[in-house]
Structures are given as C-alpha cells and as structure tokens.
Design a protein that fits this description.
By secondary structure, the chain is α+β, with helices and mostly antiparallel strands. It has one domain: Alpha-Beta Plaits. Strands 2-3-1-4 form a 4-stranded antiparallel beta sheet, with helices on both faces. The chain starts with a strand and ends in a 13-residue tail after the last helix. The model has no long low-confidence stretch (mean pLDDT 95).
C-alpha cells in the first residue's frame, strides 16, 4: 500500500535571503533525485514552480510544507537517509528552526490517491494530539 508523508519546517529567513541560498540552490537537484528514486510516486509542487516552498499552507509565511507519496515506507526511508538527500538533511539547522513539536507524519493511502495539504495537516495534528497509530505514524513505528 502506498505511503504518504507530510512534513513542515520553519525557515530562518525569506527564501531569497543569503541565509536560505544553499537550500534554495539545492531544491531542484534534490527534487530531481526524488523524482527518479525507486519507489517514488508523487510530490507536492506549486502551480507556478517545480517545488513546494512557495505554497503557503499556514498563516506563518516562514512555515514550509513538503508532501510526497512513495511505494512503501522502505523506499521513503532509503531516499531520506541513504541517498544524496541526506547531505542536505544533515544541514537543516542552517536553514530551519528546531521544531519542538512533531513536524513529520506518515500514513498509508489507497492506490492512486493524491493527498491534499489539508489532509497532511490533519494527520500531523492527529499525531501530535494522539500519538502514533495506523492513522498517523513516524518511521519509528511498526505500522
């Protein structure tokens, strides 16, 4: 069953600032890597670009969203922690605030289903309020 992931991050500055330059300069490369990665199905993009950092899903302009669908949990895990993505992932403190609350959620979707931002936000809120379950979980769970 396909797996959806939704995560949020609070940027330290505007996307056109020098602070965020390396992050912005690597977006296309990392997105291209994801698009070709085994198990990748879909990722969120704005109508005007090939990325999602210009989508405003929260009132706070600094809050960025990322959402994608993968063949399974293993495919997503390998992309996040064992591909070229990991070098950017390790540098996240350069660009994003430390989130005190849970900022990433996983859940299974039906074949062909493309989740909405609202769905991702609700799953994340559910995870924050109720903890891990089949409805909303993290890589640490066995769901």
């Amino acid at each position: 069953m396909p797996l959806a992931q939704f995560n949020i991050a609070e940027a330290l500055d505007n996307m056109d600032s020098p602070v965020m330059a390396d992050f912005v300069n690597n977006i296309d490369r990392i997105n291209a890597l994801a698009d070709e990665y085994p198990g990748f199905i879909w990722r969120l993009k704005s109508d005007d670009s090939d990325h999602a950092y210009d989508i405003q899903a929260y009132e706070d302009d600094a809050m960025l969203v990322n959402m994608s669908v993968w063949k399974d949990k293993e495919s997503l895990f390998q992309f996040v922690y064992q591909s070229g993505h990991v070098e950017i992932f390790k540098r996240r403190k350069e660009w994003f605030s430390k989130m005190m609350k849970m900022h990433m959620v996983l859940w299974y979707v039906d074949e062909g289903h493309i989740p909405t931002i609202e769905e991702g936000k609700k799953r994340l809120e559910y995870l924050r309020e109720h903890g891990e379950s089949e409805h909303a979980f993290t890589f640490k769970s066995n769901y």
